[in-house]
């Protein structure tokens, strides 16, 4: 009897190991092949059981170690010009995901047309106390108050230099610049960022629109903005290497009409003329959120609730600038239709963040596939034909 029991237990152990092993192999294959159904029904619901910041770090780690597979080749209709370079598609990963430039190569394999890292501050700083990231699952949104947690210029510069020298990355790389919380001169912080990263970046972003650094958004005011941009652009022009690196300005979605007019007036000045805009950062608005309890948390809100607000600002800025300044549209993009709306509102390029967190790597190919279908059905031959073609539709939304 004891012998029979022992044999039965051994068989049960073997069956358990085989089942677990088979499950692990199946999961690994699904992850490697970016199986949309597996991500939506299994993997992403599991990650949402983990603390948000831990999940974020785990996702960066997985990208860094290239565990998430590779993307398919893009449809030619998605190819577009990007400040003199060519993108295979107009969809990038927004700053905030890979803050410290740890996963550039891995992210490039997931199908993004360009990668933006940061925000990076001159000196290392820990950011705000934890917890500082919150999932509003019912709203498909995130509230974060990271507060420019950064490993600093030196560490990030060394990583990016190693990426460039490795020969494993040939894509478009942007560096999002921030200021230290206790800095005595925001202007000098951004100038330092231009001097350090200008020679190795494909574009630089002046981020003065995060709601999580006290006083930062004040730099969007007319006088402060003019002084900042004059200093930044002068620093760029004086670089010994890559002194034409594009400078982009990232704006908040919570601007008034007068704010918009003032900003446009500044960037139209020759001494302040940026090469592009990123619209938009996270919002401090909490309008119409389903998760009323988490909505009380301080920080910037991203995801689906930001979509219309950011698209409206894209259209307003496109109109105010006469469509002469390229815009990267970001905020609530999770489908091909979302992407198309941003394009026809006036964006030339797009970025994802929150939808990548909620749906995983398959969302990149999904959005591209759906966007290609929309372009074909509507008779467009290129992305450039869509940009701003229907901006008036979004001006009053």
From TrEMBL:
Q: Give an example GO cellular component term for this record.
A: mitochondrial inner membrane
Membrane topology, record value: Single-pass membrane protein
Primary localisation category: mitochondrion
- Please list the GO biological process terms of this entry: 'de novo' pyrimidine nucleobase biosynthetic process; 'de novo' UMP biosynthetic process
Q: Which SUPFAM superfamilies match?
A: FMN-linked oxidoreductases
This entry's Enzyme Commission designation comes to 1.3.5.2
Q: Which reaction does it catalyse?
A: (S)-dihydroorotate + a quinone = orotate + a quinol
Q: What is this protein called?
A: Dihydroorotate dehydrogenase (quinone), mitochondrial
């Amino acid at each position: 009897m004891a012998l029979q029991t022992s044999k039965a237990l051994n068989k049960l152990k073997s069956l358990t190991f085989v089942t677990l092993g088979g499950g692990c192999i199946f999961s690994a294959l699904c992850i490697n092949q970016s199986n949309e159904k597996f991500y939506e029904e299994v993997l992403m619901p599991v990650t949402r059981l983990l603390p948000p910041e831990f999940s974020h770090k785990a996702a960066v780690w997985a990208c860094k170690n290239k565990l998430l597979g590779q993307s398919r080749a893009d449809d030619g209709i998605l190819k577009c010009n990007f400040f003199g370079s060519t993108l295979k598609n107009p969809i990038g990963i927004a700053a905030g995901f890979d803050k410290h430039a740890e996963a550039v190569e891995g992210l490039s394999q997931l199908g993004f047309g360009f990668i933006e890292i940061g925000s990076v501050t001159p000196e290392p700083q820990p950011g705000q106390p934890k917890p500082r990231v919150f999932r509003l699952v019912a709203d498909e949104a995130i509230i974060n108050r990271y507060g420019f947690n950064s490993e600093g210029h030196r560490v990030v510069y060394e990583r990016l230099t190693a990426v460039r020298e490795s020969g494993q990355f040939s894509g478009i790389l942007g560096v999002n610049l921030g200021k230290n919380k206790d800095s005595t001169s925001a202007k000098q912080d951004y100038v330092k960022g231009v001097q350090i990263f200008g020679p190795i970046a494909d574009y630089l972003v002046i981020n003065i629109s995060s709601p999580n650094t006290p006083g930062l958004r004040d730099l969007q005011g007319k006088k402060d903005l003019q002084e900042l941009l004059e200093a930044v652009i002068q620093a760029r022009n004086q670089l010994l290497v890559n002194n034409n690196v594009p400078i982009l300005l990232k704006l908040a979605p919570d601007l008034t009409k007068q704010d918009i007019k003032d900003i446009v007036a500044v960037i139209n000045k020759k001494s302040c003329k940026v090469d592009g805009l990123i619209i938009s950062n996270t919002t401090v608005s909490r309008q119409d959120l389903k998760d009323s309890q988490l909505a009380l948390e301080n920080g910037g809100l991203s995801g689906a609730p930001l979509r219309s607000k950011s698209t409206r600002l894209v259209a307003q800025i496109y109109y105010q600038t006469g469509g002469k300044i390229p815009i990267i549209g970001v905020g609530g993009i999770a489908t091909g239709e979302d992407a198309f709306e941003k394009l026809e509102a006036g964006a030339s390029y797009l970025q994802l963040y929150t939808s990548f967190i909620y749906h995983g790597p398959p969302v990149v190919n999904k959005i591209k596939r759906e966007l290609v279908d929309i372009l074909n059905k509507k008779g467009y031959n290129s992305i450039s034909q869509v940009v701003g073609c229907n901006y008036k539709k979004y001006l009053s939304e």
